[in-house]
């Protein structure tokens, strides 16, 4: 399929590289309103450059639009693209609140176009192995599910970013921007959350409107308990960590690595899995450098999107799925603001 990218910041380069490795797909257009940015991106990736949305959407052959604008500017680009009949891939988070997510989902449904929210971590082998173990009941009664994102960002990251650290366009801080991948994985593995209690603070940075530290306690609908910790003020930065524990087993994942995998009833493939997935991360995972990530998860997710369009099905991470992480982060924020527990889904 033919792809176009709106917004040519850092993450757009990862999208372009992922598209370039997909058999039968190509990047045909890019859009950025900042002078010279679209032209520079187009020169790097061999596509047409556009400075206005109308001409971009009129690009011959354009079928799928990847929205890579600042988080709080996803909706407007998505609405225009959906009206033009383009399928949509939207970077994380889908949007910065539930209402804006809902408007995007509804617009795509009305237009009959597919909507995919970017959560490439779901497509790595380690979390898929953990999900299969949960679904197979290998943990027995699941008791705890925890997510830890202890990352580091220099003050310069916020000072030069323009929109980073702002409520209007970032929608939040260490949780909404950096920890959203781990929040999504935890919700995907553990199921719905009934209640959260949380505290947030800005401790390690200045001149930002949002939190750089957050801690939340979760009660899942299954009865299991959990913890979410997210920060950009933990030097030198550590790989994100997901833990699932139950009465019959426990597993720990650090980025793409399985660092612990033990069940009361060992199965034939367990030793091979421990060996194969003990060192899967080949980048810094974004823990200290936001550009130190891979794009293979993006490629796998894009390939699922193309298959979904051709097969007439929903992508594995559709708009409804992508919204769930935003809802959970927003509930954590509300609890931190009010000092009271927040119930979800009500």
Topology (SSEs and partners):
Elements: E1 2-6, H1 10-20, E2 26-31, H2 37-45, E3 48-50, H3 53-57, E4 64-67, H4 74-83, E5 87-90, H5 98-111, E6 115-117, H6 125-135, E7 142-150, H7 155-161, H8 174-178, H9 180-190, E8 193-201, E9 213-220, E10 225-231, E11 241-246, E12 249-254, E13 257-263, H10 270-276, H11 296-311, H12 319-338, E14 342-343
Helix pairs in contact: 1-11, 4-5, 5-12, 6-9, 9-12
Describe this protein's structure.
With 346 residues, the protein is of the alpha/beta class. It folds into 2 domains: 2-120 and 297-316, 3-Layer(aba) Sandwich (Rossmann fold); 121-289 and 325-343, 2-Layer Sandwich (Dihydrodipicolinate Reductase, domain 2). Helix content is 36%, strand content 23%. The protein has 12 helices and 14 strands. It has helices at residues 10-20, 37-45, 53-57, 74-83, 98-111, 125-135, 155-161, 174-178, 180-190, 270-276, 296-311, 319-338, and strands spanning 2-6, 26-31, 48-50, 64-67, 87-90, 115-117, 142-150, 193-201, 213-220, 225-231, 241-246, 249-254, 257-263, 342-343. Strand 5 (87-90), helix 5 (98-111) and strand 6 (115-117) form a beta-alpha-beta unit. Helix 1 (10-20) packs across helix 11 (296-311). The chain is globular.
